[in-house]
């Protein structure tokens, strides 16, 4: 195995790159650098932006093995994850050392669990899901691929969140609700009923907006 196989490239150098890079550094990972199509972005926590996405094939050719997608937007995160996977990068899971993940939970490829987030027993987290700072995903919840649980959001037990959903910051979803794919739950909302695919809801209790 080439030496670079243990290095990680971070894709994305915007705001979400900061907690991602910090978690990688705290976990002791070797970061080769960041790539972003805005190559003028400044370094992130001392890690240089090497250039645009067109660099990815050459970086893989240098033996860099892993890619972490530091993108908050769900569709973009999935698209770039597929791009990196197609180039031969692995997509490691990322669990911040200050997060709490049950040993009876499962995390899909490229999933991220950030500082002080909690993932309960028998929760199933899909590929490239993002459980952001301080979020709680309780027992037996299921997150389909690319879902984003924003900072401070709470999913009580047995909630199903569809692919590419955004559960807004500080929102709460009571036990057993179903959130359809591509739905958006506004910050601070209280979800007490199922949410249809593609719907946008907000308020207390949450209603269509």
What can you see in these coordinates?
- The protein is elongated, with a radius of gyration of 17 Å.
- The strands form four sheets. It has an eight-stranded mixed beta sheet, with helices on one face. The chain has a six-stranded parallel beta sheet with strand order 6-9-12-15-18-21, with no helix packed on it.
- The protein has helices at residues 17-26, 56-61, 74-86; strands spanning 7-11, 30-35, 49-51, 66-69, 94-95, 100-101, 106-107, 112-113, 118-119, 124-125, 130-131, 136-137, 142-143, 148-149, 154-155, 160-161, 166-167, 172-173, 178-179, 184-185, 190-191, 200-202, 207-208.
- It has 209 residues and is of the alpha/beta class.
Give the tags.
single chain; 209 residues; alpha/beta; eight-stranded mixed beta sheet; six-stranded parallel beta sheet; disordered N terminus
Topology:
Blueprint: E1 7-11, H1 17-26, E2 30-35, E3 49-51, H2 56-61, E4 66-69, H3 74-86, E5 94-95, E6 100-101, E7 106-107, E8 112-113, E9 118-119, E10 124-125, E11 130-131, E12 136-137, E13 142-143, E14 148-149, E15 154-155, E16 160-161, E17 166-167, E18 172-173, E19 178-179, E20 184-185, E21 190-191, E22 200-202, E23 207-208
Parallel strand pairs: 1-2, 1-4, 2-3, 5-8, 6-9, 7-10, 8-11, 9-12, 10-13, 11-14, 12-15, 13-16, 14-17, 15-18, 16-19, 17-20, 18-21, 20-22
Antiparallel strand pairs: 22-23
